[in-house]
Amino acid sequence: MNHPGTQTPEPVAIVIIGATGDLSQRLLFPALYRLFSEGAIAGSLAIVGMSRRGMTHEQFRTFVREGVQRDVAIDAASWGRFAERLFYVSADSMKEADYAHLARTLADVEPRFGTGGNRLFYLAAPPSTYESILTNLGRSELIRYGSRQLWTRVIIEKPFGRDEATARRLNVLVDRVIGEEFVYRIDHYLGKETVQNMLVLRFANTVFEPIWNRRYVDHVQISFVEDIGVGGRGRFYEEVGVVRDVIQNHVLQLLAIIAMEPPAVFDAEEFRNEKAKVLRAIPPVQPVAAVRGQYAPDLVGGQRVPGYREEEGVEPQSPTPTYAAMRLQIENWRWADVPFYLRAGKRLARKDTEVVVVFRQPPLRLFRDYDIAGMDHNVLVLKTTDDERIALRFGARVPGHKHEIRSVTLDFSYRDFGEPEHPAYEHLLLDVMRGVQTSFPRRDEVELQWAIVDPLLMYWAGHPPDDFPNYPAGSMGPKEADDLLRREGRQWRTD
Ligand code: BG6
């Protein structure tokens, strides 16, 4: 079957706006180089980087190479072929007049590399610039609106807007300038193997789906725990904070996929319809069911790490949260009364992003003569961190004469397949080039995600914290986040 998700992409000229930023250097160029060197994308390719910084094409190639070689072994011959397709335009994306320079470069490289006129714009610039960039792209006629023979697609990074109102405004602009069919709102979590596998796990197996509901599930935890601080991204982080950076997008998308109903067919519209439906069933988070935090300096591994307020680009009295935990409800037949606990934070004890489904305890009176102290709920853990894995905890009788039941773990790692690993950005860039929108949130999803967190963000903005910083770097966040679960007789999992 010639599935659209397996076709070789058509020739294209890719324009990266914000080409000298961290995201481009660290993630986008390495992904593009790997796709190119593996032959996954056509040789008829040109890549134009655009940024304000003054640079020659040669300097830009060196800059890209520095990023690529950090995590890919470069092969001289493919690098040579890739590098000759790289071009640079020094321009201010906020100024309409500067786009003439980009248009000239495209007019020069498109026929040279046989890209056929298809264009892909990647907005890898700060979120506050998206409106101007879209407006300028539209006005400078670089986007061929509504054309299917000769397509123009646009990728927009997260966060998409600052709240529901700004997201709606941006969506209206997207509609006018590009059209929903050609926009790709990227959320790189949807390109991770574990996330791509969630529907397979739930709906291509017999054993999970029948128990995936309020009758068997006690609660669900989604943790987005990171050990890194904000590093060189202080200015960006001051604009967003933890909720806009990862909860409104990555975490709520994970939740939607974990909680959605099965689509009738697996295509972009049906999949996104089901996610939107579950997001619509979630009432806004209540401030009383949420906790915020900010990291203080501390010793981590014997070394002092700075507090958030000491990071470059951060205000000395900043109220920006670097940690948040909250409790959500999904008010539908499958999930009513099952709490979903979410937490995300920087500078915590470890890096761990995972979904944990905790099942109800069975009646255990039958085993009243057993030692069950080491026995826990059945738990299914889906880890989306680097070593992506799935683990199932269940009780087993300890061998020997004692009567004891202990929890044991069945563990599966994606590495067991022995296949080469492809970072999320590779999957997603390939999808865009193939015109497959399945892994890209639709307009309504993004707006619904804002509607869930907006009242909390407004409440927090109106009530600045008086206890920041309130958790030490290297810890697991503020104590109040533990209390949030403890008062309901639960605790954050540490599996
Ligand atoms: C990004 C956030 O979207 O995701 C970062 O902006 C975060 O703050 C990153 O560190 C985490 O992604 P990953 O793939 O490293 O888990």
From TrEMBL:
> Which InterPro entries does the entry link to?
G6P_DH, G6P_DH_AS, G6P_DH_C, G6P_DH_NAD-bd, NAD(P)-bd_dom_sf
Q: What is one GO biological process annotated to this record?
A: glucose metabolic process
Q: Which GO terms describe its cellular component?
A: cytosol
| Catalysis performed (reactions) | D-glucose 6-phosphate + NADP(+) = 6-phospho-D-glucono-1,5-lactone + NADPH + H(+)
Q: Where is the Glucose-6-phosphate dehydrogenase C-terminal domain?
A: 199-493
| EC nos | 1.1.1.49
Alphabetical UniProt keywords: Carbohydrate metabolism, Glucose metabolism, NADP, Oxidoreductase
Binding of substrate occurs at: H188, K192, E226, D245, K346, K351
EC class: oxidoreductase
Q: Where do the Glucose-6-phosphate dehydrogenase NAD-binding domain residues begin and end?
A: 15-197
According to the UniProt entry, which residue ranges have a biased composition of type Basic and acidic residues? 479-495
Record region (Disordered): 470-495
One GO MF annotation is: glucose-6-phosphate dehydrogenase activity
Entry-linked PANTHER family: GLUCOSE-6-PHOSPHATE 1-DEHYDROGENASE, GLUCOSE-6-PHOSPHATE 1-DEHYDROGENASE G6PD
Free-text function comment from the UniProt entry = Catalyzes the oxidation of glucose 6-phosphate to 6-phosphogluconolactone.
> What is stated as this protein's family in its record?
Belongs to the glucose-6-phosphate dehydrogenase family.
What this protein is called in its record is Glucose-6-phosphate 1-dehydrogenase
- Give the organism the record lists: Candidatus Segetimicrobium genomatis
Tell me what gene encodes this.
zwf
